[in-house]
Design a protein that fits this description.
alpha+beta, 6-stranded mixed sheet, 27 helices, globular
Length: 877
């Protein structure tokens, strides 16, 4: 049974009828300029009053859930946001017109360090700063006319939201999906918090830009690594995801087959008789010249009574923990004086180094180095004068290794019993012999590590556990949720204010009642964004999700966002959906929450800068007068440097405020231009000229509509009416296919063509009105305000927003005309369109009536007139 009662449907219909009737109270317009400042707010009011975009579960209708990645409330949106949300809006409006029950919500990814930084800089509370920004950004977004169900809006910093997140944390903790351990982490010494590997950019914190250090802390972790294989294999079942994103996730999960075995150690401290290593290239064992361990390896720590080792390890820990960061760093090592014995030659000893490029939590934290076939190992070996021996050859012959390691397929050489084998054969042989000697085994490893979510900051979701000396770690009672952040905090000192907040931190143990302390770490903000899509299905539910609503609305049918979220957000969301299913918060089919993913390009703009006393100041485009030869400041006339076209960025101030565009041209102009100028997956440069061209086109549409409305043209001839109808149905067919295929720029190009056809058409008023109504329907997903106005002017029923998508008449797509080129004395001079079955005598008459032929004949008869049926017309003078 549908969950929308009949009286509710009737009530909404009455509201819509009244709102539309009120909007259409006006005089028949004179041909005039379209006034977006009046029209756009008018129709937005109509939509709001009629609750057009409010989504209700209706089991009798097929649903469609479209979602753009929700924004961080930094204070202002720019035209890049407009492009992203317009794409989603085009899809949402199109699907609604196609009869789907559409859910198109919006919220705010509101926790995070920027709010704390702002609190410190401006002596304000992070919550106040955040909610002010949300209000400002929402004020910018509403005039854009997005078909968003604002009744489902929430911010992740709302206690009603993060309280449900805390409830799921407790469920997942009890289900064994969360644990706590000591771990080496990336530590930002300025923000004084832990960073995920992906948040370390070129060795620096992504927010503070401070050099990142490695530090051992007790952290909370999600067991995402338990799902490594499932997350990897399931990527092949996501055909509507970009291949690039799938590849990035596959590489990040990083499945590898290899050998884990132990070297015998010589000269090591007691308890370290063997060194266990992991390698994906056991075939190169006969080219090994050293072994190396991480600075966080137990052996490296055991050697720290030596000041040199302690200092070296400390230096290594000042690096980030990401593989990418270690790959970029200069490779350095410290010889421990310990050696290992080659597993196949007891007389072969190799030195053991502590090296800065070994990750402790990948494999075993120890490797052997084969310099001839790994560039990193080769650079290291050359630096420390270690032996380099080729053991794989392209043609099976020996060679001297130069400055580049050989990593291509080849044949084993200089490798005893492996000589002559292929790489795969040699890997299998080494694993077989090692396993036979009980020295190790073939294993599968993953690059993906468990997700550390502990953050040492205030503005995040509190972790709902209590530390009791008697009971240990005790989850907070669910009846006490949400565990709210205290309001009375100070940011005068660095670090986490929750550590210093006695009245919030100190509580009674919920299990035994003894004095205890709350966990003062908060959750990584990626937790907040890993399930918001599910909360949108029932944002007011008393539980994290209402399963009946989730079963109806999930999955997200179309997800839209930037490629920069390909790894972090999307991978975490895929894991979190599985964790939610395991704990009863999502149905089984929703473990892959996003059916289709589209990664849009960015909006770019040149930037403007001036330099004084070696200090660079960037200027907003609104502050600059741009000329063909350069740019000057509007306020002073001083010249400024024009920088290259780059991604819009608040730091470079090359952002365009949509409020300025709306004020000057209207929201539809901004929407039309961002969809029309480039394929949506590519970057688009914002230019004033492009915006003005879009505005002029919309003015042209309105002018044509007014002219049709005021026309007293005679009824069409059958031929003119048919030609216009055919053009209209071709356009419906092409625009429909282009929107379905995310080729929005192509759809708009088809609408430009149809505009030209309609303007040139000799059809009568009623046929042009019908064509212009189709124009309004096809333009509506992109430019809904002017589409409403045109629809009303042409006599459309109700709102174009609620009108069904125009149906295609297949018969109208059959092209029964052909184009015949006209050659005059052997050179093509013109062409005519004729019916395929038009008699030759009639074709001859049309050819002689062509303007180019008339000019060429100059009143004379042609010497010859040859019509090759269906192909060409030749005129001989």
């Amino acid at each position: 049974m549908p969950l929308v009662p009949a009286f509710t449907t009737l009530y909404l219909a009455i509201i819509q009828f009244s709102a539309v009737a009120e909007a259409n109270k006006r005089e028949t317009p004179a041909v005039t300029r379209y006034n977006a400042r009046v029209t756009e707010p008018k129709w937005q009011k109509v939509w709001d009053e009629a609750l057009v975009f409010k989504a209700e579960r209706d089991d009798s209708r097929e649903k469609y859930y479209v979602l753009e990645m929700f924004p961080y409330p930094s204070g202002r949106i720019h035209i890049g946001h407009v492009r992203n949300y317009t794409m989603g809006d085009v899809v949402a409006r199109f699907k609604a017109a196609r009869g789907f029950n559409v859910l198109h919500p919006m919220g705010w990814d509101a926790f995070g360090m920027p709010a704390e930084n702002a609190a410190m800089e401006n002596n304000t509370h992070p919550g106040k700063w955040t909610y002010q920004n949300i209000a400002a950004m929402k004020k910018q977004m509403r005039p854009l006319g997005f078909s968003i169900d604002w009744s489902r809006e929430f911010a992740t910093c709302d206690p009603e939201y993060y309280g449900k997140q805390q409830a799921m944390f407790i469920d997942m903790l009890e289900a064994g999906l969360i644990y706590r351990k000591n771990a080496v982490v990336n530590w930002d010494p300025v923000d004084m918090t832990v960073l995920a590997n992906e948040q370390v950019i070129d060795g620096k914190g992504w927010r503070s830009n401070a050099p990142v250090e490695r530090k051992e802390l007790t952290q909370w972790f999600f067991k995402i690594s338990d799902y490594s294989d499932e997350l990897l294999e399931a990527l092949d079942d996501l055909p509507n995801w970009p291949e690039k994103v799938q590849t990035m996730q596959k590489n990040w999960i990083g499945k590898s087959q290899g050998l884990q075995f132990s070297f015998e150690m010589n000269g090591a401290p007691k308890g370290f008789e063997e060194l266990e290593v992991y390698t994906t290239r056991p075939d190169t064992l006969f080219g090994a010249s050293f072994a190396a361990i991480s600075a966080d390896h137990p052996l490296a720590k055991a050697l720290e009574n030596d000041p040199k080792v302690a200092a070296f390890n400390a230096d290594c820990r000042r690096m980030g923990t990401s593989a990418e960061e270690m790959e970029k760093a200069d490779k350095v090592g410290l010889d421990t004086g310990i050696t290992v014995t080659h597993p196949f030659d007891p007389d072969w000893q190799m030195p053991v180094y502590i090296a800065n490029f070994i990750l402790m939590d990948y494999g075993t934290g120890a490797i052997f180095g084969c310099p001839a076939h790994d560039q990193r190992d080769l650079d290291f070996a050359r630096k420390y004068g270690l032996n380099v021996k080729a053991v794989v050859s392209a043609d099976g012959t020996n060679y001297e290794v130069g400055t580049e390691a050989f990593s291509d397929p080849g044949t084993l050489i200089n490798s005893d019993f492996l000589d002559g084998m292929s790489i795969d054969e040699a890997i299998a042989e080494v694993i077989s012999r090692v396993e036979a000697r009980d020295m190790g085994k073939g294993v599968t490893q993953y690059r993906l590590r468990d997700w550390g979510i502990s953050r040492q900051r205030y503005w995040g979701c509190p972790i709902p556990v209590i530390h009791c000396d008697t009971c240990g770690i005790v989850p907070e009672s669910k009846k006490n949720l949400p565990v709210k952040l205290p309001d009375d905090v100070s940011f005068e000192r660095p670090g986490n204010p929750l550590d210093r907040h006695d009245t919030w931190r100190d509580v009674a143990c919920p299990k035994c009642g003894a004095a205890a302390q709350r966990e003062t770490d908060t959750m990584d903000t990626f937790v907040d964004s890993s399930w918001y899509y599910a909360r949108f299905t029932s944002p007011n539910a008393e539980t994290p999700t209402d399963l009946a609503e989730a079963e109806y609305w999930m999955n997200v049918d179309q997800y839209i966002g930037g490629i920069e979220h390909a790894i972090l957000h999307l991978l975490y969301s895929r894991f979190f959906a599985r964790a939610m299913e395991k704990t009863g918060h999502l149905p089984k089919f929703a473990i892959e929450p996003f059916n289709a993913l589209f990664t849009q390009g960015m909006v770019t703009h040149e930037f403007y800068a001036s330099t004084k006393a070696n200090r660079t100041t960037y200027h907003n485009p609104s502050e600059v007068i741009r000329t063909a030869t350069g740019a000057t400041l509007r306020s002073t006339g001083k010249e400024v440097t024009v920088g290259p076209i780059i991604k819009m960025s608040k730091s470079k101030k090359n952002v365009v405020d949509p409020e300025d565009i709306i004020d000057q041209y209207g929201a539809d102009t901004a929407r039309w231009f961002t969809m029309s100028d480039s394929p949506p997956e590519r970057d688009v440069e914002w230019t004033a000229a492009g915006a003005e061209a879009a505005w002029k086109h919309l003015q042209r549409i309105w002018r044509m509509a007014c002219e049709i409305d005021e026309s007293d043209a005679k009824p069409s001839s059958a031929q003119d009416a048919l030609a216009l109808a055919k053009a209209a149905h071709r356009t419906i067919d092409e625009v429909t296919a282009d929107i379905e295929g995310f080729a929005f720029n192509k759809a708009i190009a088809k609408l430009y063509e149809f505009t030209n056809t309609l303007q040139k058409s000799k059809a009568g008023k009623s046929d042009k009105q019908a064509a212009m109504k189709i124009m309004a329907q096809l333009m509506h997903p992109t430019t809904p305000h002017i589409a409403e106005e045109v629809w009303a002017l042409m006599g459309g029923t109700g709102m174009v927003t609620t009108a069904p998508w125009p149906e295609i008449d297949p018969a109208m797509l059959i092209d029964d005309t052909i184009t015949l080129p006209i050659q005059i004395n052997g050179k093509r001079r013109s062409e005519i369109k004729v019916a395929k079955d038009l008699p030759k005598s009639e074709v001859e008459k049309l050819a002689l009536a062509d303007e180019a032929v008339i000019r060429a004949l100059a009143g004379n008869a042609p010497k010859k007139l040859i019509v090759v049926t269906g192909r060409i017309i030749n005129v001989v003078i």
